[in-house]
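Researcher: Going back to the complex we discussed earlier. I've cleaned up the inputs and rechecked each line, so this should be the final set. Can you rerun the prediction on the complete assembly and write out the structure?
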Amino acid sequence: MRQSELFVKTQREDPKEEESVNAKLLIRAGYVDKVMAGVYTLLPLGQRVIKKIEGIIREEMERIGGVEIFMPTLQPAANWEKTGRYEVYDTLFKFKSFFSKSDYVLGPTHEEIVTPLMGKFVFSYKDLPLAVFQIQNKFRDELRSKSGLLRGREFLMKDLYSFHSSEEDLEKFYKRVSSSYGKIFRRVGIGRLTYFTYASGGTFSKYSHEFQTLTSAGEDVIYICNKCRVAVNREIIEDLHGACPECGNKDLREEKAIEVANIFPLKTRFSSAFGLKFAGADGRENLVQMGCYGIGLSRLLGTVVEVAHDDKGIIWPEQIAPFKFHLIELKKGKGRDLYRRLTKAGAEVLYDDREATAGEKFADADLIGIPWRLVVSEKTKNKIEIKKRGESKSKLVNYGDLGRIL
Amino acid sequence: MRQSELFVKTQREDPKEEESVNAKLLIRAGYVDKVMAGVYTLLPLGQRVIKKIEGIIREEMERIGGVEIFMPTLQPAANWEKTGRYEVYDTLFKFKSFFSKSDYVLGPTHEEIVTPLMGKFVFSYKDLPLAVFQIQNKFRDELRSKSGLLRGREFLMKDLYSFHSSEEDLEKFYKRVSSSYGKIFRRVGIGRLTYFTYASGGTFSKYSHEFQTLTSAGEDVIYICNKCRVAVNREIIEDLHGACPECGNKDLREEKAIEVANIFPLKTRFSSAFGLKFAGADGRENLVQMGCYGIGLSRLLGTVVEVAHDDKGIIWPEQIAPFKFHLIELKKGKGRDLYRRLTKAGAEVLYDDREATAGEKFADADLIGIPWRLVVSEKTKNKIEIKKRGESKSKLVNYGDLGRIL
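Model: Rerun complete. Updated structure for the full complex:
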C-alpha cells in the first residue's frame, strides 16, 4: 500500500485524555481513533492487525474442530431473566425497542443465545461433542474505561462454546483448548510473557483459567510458580495457602498482568437454565456439559503494544504486523520499482512515497513499528538499506538478499 | 467439511411465525436461526455464504481505491444532535449508559462517525479524494420485521464513504462506484435481475440511486425503461412525468423489487454539520463533498434466496454457494477417498457421511442447494454420478472429468 493513499496521519503529541501507553501509541501512530471513552474506530492499520490476529485465532479454532457462527448483538432480555443474570450482570447495557416495546440487552457474552440454539439441534449423545465459535463485537457498560484498548465498552472477542455428554469429555476438550491458546499466544508473539493462570471457578466449578500477559499496565496481580511456570490469580491465592496448584511449590513471585483470555468449565450452569438435555446411549436424559473459552482481540491489540514498544513507538511481532516491510524512499520515485517487485513477490509493503523529510519518515516508521525498514536513496545507489525495528544496526543489501525474509 | 460434524439439522416443516420465502428456506436448510423478529444467528452454512459475499464486495471496493476501517456500533447521541437527525431518524435505537449517564445510539449508519473522523486528517486539497469502507452490523428499530433477512433489526452492511474537493470529482467517483456495484451484483449472481434505479435525492440532491432486484417479495415498485434498462423508483415517477430520466422514453414497465444497494451524493450535508473543510490550491477554505454507498449483505443473502429457489429448496449461484460440491455417499465410507481427493485439489466439499436414507440425503441436498451434487454408491461403481442443482439430468463421470469444473 502506498502511504500517500493512506488517509491517516501520525501525531507528534500524545492525545489528551488518554492515560494508557497502548491508546497513546495506537492513536499517535494512526491505528485507532477514539470516538468516546472505551469506544474506538479501527483505522486501516489497526484493522489490518486485527485481521491478522483474527486469522491466527480462526485457524487454531478450526484446527480443534470449532465451527464458525455469528450471533446477534441484540439479545432478548427474557433469555437473561431465564439464567438469572438480567439483574446481577452489572455491566449489561439494557434498553427497549420503541416500536415493539421489547426489552433488549447488548450482548456482553453469548451463553444466553448459544444454549437455546443448541436446544434445537442436540437430542442424542450422538450429536455430541460439538464446538462453535464466533468473532464479533461485544459490549459492556464499564464504570471506568481508562485503559485504552485493554478495557473497552465495545470490544472484539472470540468466544468458543463447547458441548459434551460427560464431564470427562468436557475436561479433555478443555485441555485441548488450553494448549491451543498457548499456541495462539506464541503465534501472536507474546507467548514468552503469557501465563496459564488458575482463577476462581465461581459457584459451580473449582477453578476457571486465564491467560495472563505480564505488563505493568495490567489490572490483575498473579503469582507465578518458579518451578512449573503455572500462575495463580490473586483472587484465589489465599484459598490455595500460597501454593502452586500444580506442583505444591510455595516459591511464587508476584507480577502485574493483563488477562488476555479466559476459559471456563460452565458445566450445567446454562444447560440447566434452558433445559438443554440429550438422551444417553441408555436412553436416559442428561444435561449437556458446557465450556466457554474467550479471547479478547482488541484487548490483545492493546496488550501487544504495552509489551512491545520503546520510546520511539511500537515494535510489532512479525506475525501480526500490519505490513512486513516499510519501504522508505528518500528520493521521489526511487522506491517505485522495488515496491512493485516486492508486492509482486507477495510481500506486504507499506511504501512511503510521501513528500516529507528523511527525519519525518524515519520517525513515522519507528512510531508505526513495521518489522523491516527498507530505505532507498541517492546514497544507497542500487542497494537497499535494511534495518529491523527495535535494532539499531542497518546494512546494505541487494534485492536478492531479501528473498531470505520474504 | 463432513456433514456429520455440522451440528445443524434441516427441518422438513416451514418454521412458524415466518412469512417470507427467504426466512423459511434459510431456516429449514439450516443457514440461519431466528432469535427474535428481525434478529438472526448466522449458522455455519449461512456464515460461509456471507463470507463469500463479503469477499467479493471487499475485492471490488479495494479495486476502486476504498480502504477498510471498522467503526463502532456505540455512537454518541451528541453527534446525531449535531446533524439534526437525533429526533427525526425514526428507527434509531437510543439508550443511556448506567454508569457514565451518556446518551448512546446504536449505529444504523455511520456518517455521524466518519465525518468527524475525517476532520482529523483532511486539511488540504492534497488530502483528497479518499474513500473508506466498513463491513459490519448495523441496527434499526423497525416497526415491523416480517420479511426475514430482507429487513432486519440487526443486519450486515457494507458502507463506503467518499470525500472530494469538488462536486465534479464526487460525480466522477459516484459513476465509478455505480459500475463497481453492477459488477458486484453480476458476480453475486443476480446481475440480470438487478436494475440501476433513480430514486429521490432528498432535500440536497436531485437524485440518489438504488440497485433494485426484481422479485415478488420486494417492498418497492420500480418502472423499468424498455429502451435503456434504467429504472425509476415509484416515489419519483410522477415528478418525472412517467419518462425515463436517461433517454426520455415513456414505455416503462412496472415491477416489484427489493433495494439491495443505494448510493447517495451527500454533497455537503454532513461536512457542513461537522465543519469538515479543506484548503484549496488557492488557499481558500471549502466544505468537503461527500458520497455514501451502501450494500446490505444480509439482505443480499435473503434476496438471492428469493430469486433462486424452487419448491425443493435453494439454488445457489456458484460464486456465493457455501460449498461447490455436495458429495453424497449411499454406502458407508464409499465417499471418503473422493472427499480426500477433492479437498486436496482445493475444492470446497460438503461430504454427506451421515447414516441416513438416500431419500433423506437427496432431499437435504436439494434444500441446501449446493451447485454440484456428486453421488457415490454401490451402483456407481468406480464412477461418480454428477448433477447440477436445478437441473434434472444426472450423468456418470470419472474423477478426471471433474477437473473441468474444479
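Model: Worth noting: Chain A has a mean pLDDT of 96.
Researcher: Good, that matches what I expected from the previous run.
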